[in-house]
TrEMBL record:
This protein's UniProt keywords: Cell membrane, Disulfide bond, G-protein coupled receptor, Glycoprotein, Membrane, Receptor, Transducer, Transmembrane, Transmembrane helix
GO molecular-function terms, A-Z: G protein-coupled receptor activity
Any one Gene Ontology cellular component term annotated for this protein: plasma membrane
Lineage, broadest ranks: Eukaryota, Metazoa, Chordata, Craniata, Vertebrata
Protein name: Putative P2Y purinoceptor 10
Coiled coil feature spans: none
GO biological process, any: positive regulation of Rho protein signal transduction
Subcellular location: Cell membrane
Membrane-spanning residues: 26-48, 60-83, 103-124, 136-157, 183-208, 229-252, 272-295
Domain G-protein coupled receptors family 1 profile: 39-292
Gene3D superfamilies, per the entry: Rhodopsin 7-helix transmembrane proteins
Main location: membrane
Function: Putative receptor for purines coupled to G-proteins.
Amino acid sequence: MESNSTSNAETNCNISSMSFQYSLYATTYIIIFIPGLLANSAALWVLCRFISKKNKAIIFMINLSVADLAHVLSLPLRIYYYISHHWPFQRALCLLCFYLKYLNMYASICFLTCISLQRCLFLLKPFRARNWKRRYDVGISAAIWVIVGTACLPFPILRSAGLGNNSDSCFADLGYKKMNAVVLVPMVTIAELAGFVVPVIIIACCTWKTTISLSQPPMAGISERRKALRMVFMCAAVFFICFTPYHINFVFYTMVKETIISSCPIAQSTLYFHPFCLCLASLCCLLDPILYYFMASEFRDQLSRHSSSVTRSRLMSKESGSSMVG
């Protein structure tokens, strides 16, 4: 969670200045915004309009792109706040943008896991792939949105402490509401298990199983196996780069904020590392489109085909225009 509020550990350890985080957040979000908006908009358009073959985890890719776009569209407000240090809008908009950050993170984790799992299972059990219906993926996606959307509600609720309607603070300057240990321990445990440990195990198993399948007969379909392996490897790379640092640091960060950890070196390193973890998590908005383009042959084929047709139509219009002039 983004926070600039002070706990006993922060006060005792003299951790008062975290001003570097404002420039860090602003720079990261500026870098991500335009490429992320263009890449995910193009990906969503191509995936929805030009891919009629709705297998190979295409439905999950569409939902992953929607999750990334939801976060990307909130970045201009984040950039404005971290540059101006002032929030002129309503509290509800601040909390909505804050909520979208974590909705994007955990929805992305779930959809990356689904992509890896489906590609691996369909590769190892092709007969199951033939009988698989598109509505199954739609149902799974809907369930993910409901579960993740509900599970992420505590993030803005816990951070809205002391935030009035006319407050000019948001994001990193939101308050932190301390929790009872009876609530804290189960919440952190569930968040870490469901949002990190279980997906890590699933993605690692899928990567291992898919790698092993390349060395097993029959050798027919080796090209399809390699495509599936690249897809699973890319999912693993995005997961480990973007989400592993945050979830490793999250446990320590919570314990520092709850004054469970009082060691100054641990508290200091945890709080300083936290903004970098959140910036890495936002990078998924740039890395996910690479997953679509380089790992899904249908995406590449349809994108290049459409680009060629657009180029041809423009050339033809120019030629017809020049012939009329001539």
